[in-house]
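Action item from last meeting closed. Structure (109 res):
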């Protein structure tokens, strides 16, 4: 299951910074590699994780928000109360998805 958050941020770095700040309020640390902040080409980028019906549901749930954050299973996803009330982040839900890792070819011809 992948956790999906949403919010309104001017830039991706601003969204990452806010996420780090909010995690700190809960004493949580996480690897930024476990988070994908998506602001442009949302439908295409979400399709890397989710089936079309789930992408459409996420888009509908976002409302006017301009940023969607996909979080892999990590310290952030262990707290059911994250993000808390008063946060600029909103939990959209946990959705069945997939993570496709790029293969690394460490051989040199």
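Sequence:
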């Amino acid at each position: 299951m992948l956790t999906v958050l949403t919010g309104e941020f001017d830039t991706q770095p601003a969204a990452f910074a806010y996420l780090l700040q909010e995690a700190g309020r809960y004493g949580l640390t996480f690897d930024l590699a476990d988070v994908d902040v998506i602001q442009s080409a949302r439908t295409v980028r979400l399709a890397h994780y989710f089936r079309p019906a789930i992408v459409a549901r996420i888009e509908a749930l976002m409302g006017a928000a301009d940023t969607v954050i996909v979080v892999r299973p990590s310290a952030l996803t262990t707290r059911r109360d994250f993000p808390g009330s008063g946060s600029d982040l909103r939990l959209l839900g946990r959705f069945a998805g997939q993570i496709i890792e790029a293969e690394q070819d460490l051989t040199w011809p």
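Note appended to the action item: Helices lie at 12-25, 42-46, 52-62, 75-78.
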